[in-house]
Amino acid sequence: MYKGKKVIAVLPAYNAALTLEKTYKEIPFDLVDEVILCDDASKDNTSELARSIGIEHVITHQTNKGYGGNQKSLYNKALELGGDIVIMLHPDYQYTPKLIPAMVNIIGDELYPVVLGSRILGKGALAGGMPLYKYIANRALTLTQNLLINYKLSEYHTGYRAFSREVLELINFNANSDDFVFDNEMLSQIIYAGFHIAEVTCPTKYFEEASSINFARSSKYGLGVLRVSFSHLLQRLGLGRFRIYEQPQKHAQARP
Question: What keywords were assigned to this record (predicted)?
């Protein structure tokens, strides 16, 4: 809890048994009220381990729904539980839970409604083990996105994110892809809706147990990012209409 606001950490998990407990132990429970883990049909014992270490809310997908599908389950559950500040933390220990207080403070003090943990701001991405091709792709895609979306972020590709309840209620994240491009669709929606985004420096950690996608999946992701960016441009200029920028039905109906 922070200033009367309920804080929930959500963990999108797939074969995370080797790193889950280490990640969980570093969560600051003086701030975080609830933890939700969604196991996207892991082949290891992620769900069982999550329950054994004390995670009360464990969602288990019987079939793999993808990274985006995993997040949809998590955010819907967080809203159901009354979360006011929701932090997505990967259970592969690639992002340090020690930044949660800073992210919570920014949203809880109503400075910004969205916070990203940027691996680029501190200029330590390569030193932290990010593959060179991923670093180059990150920089090239981010430059292109900033131009097309008409915003300025150091990177759009971090998986460390925190959101206010208002943001999650007003963007149509359930209309997004179930794949990795979900993250970029979500940022595009947030910017299009007029919300502002803060960034904090986040250490880069690539190691054997950390989850990562291969070159082929990365290439598919890159093409998806470009598609989202051009869709955003067309929507912004009034030259196209895309479902992901529509408000969720219940909020659209509530408008006078």
Answer: Transferase
